[in-house]
Amino acid sequence: MQTSIDIEALNQQIYIDSAFMETLNAETSKVIVGQKHMTDRLMLGLLAEGHVLLEGLPGLAKTLSIKTLAAAIDADFHRIQFTPDLLPSDIIGTMIYNPGKNEFTVRKGPIFANFILADEINRAPAKVQSALLEAMQEKQVTIGKETYKLEEPFLVLATQNPIEQEGTYPLPEAQVDRFMIKVNIDYPTREEEKSIIRKNILGEITQNIHAVVKPATIMKARESVKKVYMDEKIENYILDIVFATREPDKYKLHNIKPLISHGASPRGSIYMALAAKAHAFMNRRGYVIPDDVRHVCKDVLRHRIGLSYEAEAENVTQEDIITNIINAIPVP
Fold it and tell me: For position 208, which CATH number holds?
């Protein structure tokens, strides 16, 4: 166990290592109005080496947010529009025959970038979805006989439209589980939208973003995130929350048992611990507190809990279930 002196020294070191977060937030806020939760979760995924699934209506700055973040970090950004006629080679690349040299050469696809926006991922068939998700999981791509490592930092932001289901291919549960967090995006407030109107009319929304952070800084920050101290009590708190989604009866949550068809996977526990550490780092702390867990809990678990027919009939959501669990589990 770490002593209080060790934790104090770690806390000071994390405070120094996380100093760039203020600069990065200030730079991105020049363009992004509101949507604080979404931009925070993008940074959280970046720091915790986890991919992000966004669900929200069109026009809520999903593309603009990741493009702005990529520009502020001096990283490569590629947007892939998923369509029903997309092929796996359109994402990862393919072998092209060169008649002049009488040989095949590799043409790399758009997956070779630091930031990937997979727009409307559920519009492409399963074969294309799995090509992207394999690259996300393995951090490498095989073209022909050669395997190519994807350059770090590597973050995939996938979006899906929650209201239009015609001509879509919903992501299978096993593939959705590979995303660290799922973020539901809502409309901006009235004041935020007024600011958005003014910025667009004046052309301020297109102002140049300066690269204030290097990718090497992000890589160093990821190592610091792993060092953030997590007490065993916090670990047990995370496990209680996750196990309550699987065995509600053991936590006296008899009312939600009929509403759950399956609980969160072990990835839920792993990602919640990583996300809590990243949240502490973003708040310039060297140790995790229960509030860090509570802040990331819904984003980590909402796509890992299966709803029963009874829950759907009663219009109960995953968020309702998670709220019940959080309220029932004692805070350490």
Answer: 3.40.50.300
